[in-house]
Amino acid sequence: METDLILVERAKKGDLKAFSKLVEQNKKLVYYLAYDMMNNREDAEDISQEVFIKAYKSLANFRGDSKFSSWLYRITMNTCLSLRRNKSSKIKSGVEDIEDYLEHNLTEMKVSYEQNPERFAERGFMKKNIDKALNVLSPREKSVFVLRNMNDLPFGEISEILKLTLGTVRSLNFRALKKLQNQLSFYKNTLSVEEING
Amino acid sequence: MANCKTYIKMFELSLYGELKEKDENELNLHLETCKTCSEEYNSLKETLELFQNREHVEPDIIFMESFWDNLQPELEKVNNSKSVFDNLKSTFANLFNSQPKWTYQLAGGLAILVMGIFIGRFFFNSNVATENTIVAINNENNSVNVSQVKAERYIDRSKVLLLGLVNMDTESENVEPINFQQQKRISQQLVTEAAVLKKELSAPSQRRLKELVSDLEVILLQIANIESEYDLSWIDLVRSGVDKRGIFLKINIQKMQNTNSQSDVKDERSEIKNKNI
After folding, report:
1. B229 pLDDT more than 60
2. Contact criterion met (CB < 8 Å) for A130 and B78
3. Which of A8, A72, B28, B43 is the most exposed place for a label (fewest CB within 10 A)?
4. Alpha-carbon gap, residue A26 to B58, rounded angstroms
5. Which residue, A38, A68, A94, sits at the end of a domain?
6. What end-to-end distance do the CA atoms of chain A give, in Å?
7. Is B57 helix (H, G, I), strand (E, B) or coil?
C-alpha cells in the first residue's frame, strides 16, 4: 500500500492519479471540519474543494514533517477563518456585533423551547442550535474546540496544525468549553443530556 | 475554597481522561463532598459530551461522488500553468547551457569593462576636467607669478637705488666727491635685466608693470651712463625724470595691485576646489 508521502511525491511531479488517492482518503474529514467551522453546507462544499486546489498548488511546501492530513487541516482552518472573517464583517453591517447576533439567536432558542418543548428536544433542531452556540467562540477558540472535541484530534496534533504551544491549545479549549457551558446552561437544566443525544 | 481551586484545576485533565489515577481518586472524593464543585464539573462534562457525541452532518452524496470530477479540471489548469512555467525555465536553462563556458567569461569581462568605462566617464570626467583647469591655471599663474616676482624684485631694487639718489643733499657746500660706481654698476645690471623682464611680462594683466619697468629702464640708463662723479647735475635730471614719470606713485600703485591680484588667485583656487567637492 502506498503511503501518503509516496503519493505526495508523485503528485508533486504532476501525477493527478496519485493526488486523487489523497483526495479520496481525506475529502470527508476536510468536509466535516469545514462544516463544523462554518455551520453551513454550501460553505463546507466550497471550502473542501478549495482546500484541495490550494494543497495541490503548494505541494512543494509540504516537506513531510507532519501528517498530510494535519497539513490539510491547517489549510482548511485557514480557509475557513478567512471566509468567516469576510462573513462576520457582513453580519456586523446588519447587527451591532457578533455577540448581539448570537444573543439574539439564543433568545430565539429559549422562546422556541418554551413554546414547544417536544419539538425543541428533537435532535436535528438541537444540533442546529448547538452549532449556532459555537459562534460565540473566538476564531482560535473555535478552531481548537472543533478540532479536539468534534474531530477527535489530540492536543499535540492541534498544536502542530495551528502552530500554537500545547499550553495555549489546552487553555483555549477550556476557555471555549466554559463559554459554551454558559451559553447552553439554560436548557441543560431542563433537558437531560440523554434526551439531547437521543 | 482554596481546596476547591486545586480541584477545579484538575477538571480539564479529568474531562479528557488524562488525570493520574491518584489525582482522579482525590478529585472524585472531593466531588462527593463539595456540591458546588460537583455541579460545576457535571455541567462542564455535559456540555462537552453534547459536542463530543454530536454526529457529523453527512455531506451530500452527489457532491461527494462528483468531488474528484469537479476538482480535476481545476488541477489540470494548475498543471498546465506549471508546465508553461517549466517550459520557460527550461528554455532559459537551454539557452545558457548551449553556449561554451568561455563565452560567458568573455561577456562578463566585456560587461565589467563597459561598466568601468561608464563609471569612469560618469564619475571622474568632471574631476579630471577641473584638475586640468587647475593645472592650466596653476601653470599660467606660475609663469605669471615668476615674472611678477622678478618684476617686483626689480622694482624694489630700482626704488631703493632711486630713493638714495633722489634724496641726496646736492645743495650742501661740504659735498665731498662721491663714488657712484656701485650705483652705476647696479643700474647697468638693472637695465640689462629690464630687457629680459619686458619680454617675460607678456600677459595682458602685466601691461602696467611692463610700462613701469620701461620707465625705470630709461632713468636707470641715465644713471648707468654717468661720466663725472663731481658734476651732480645728472642727479637733477634723474629727479626730474622720476617726478615727471611719477615713478614712486606708479611703484606704490603697482604694489597695491599685486597685493589684490594675489588674493584674487587664492579665491579662484578655493572656488574651484569647493566646486569639486
Report:
1. no
2. no
3. B28
4. 14
5. A94
6. 40
7. coil
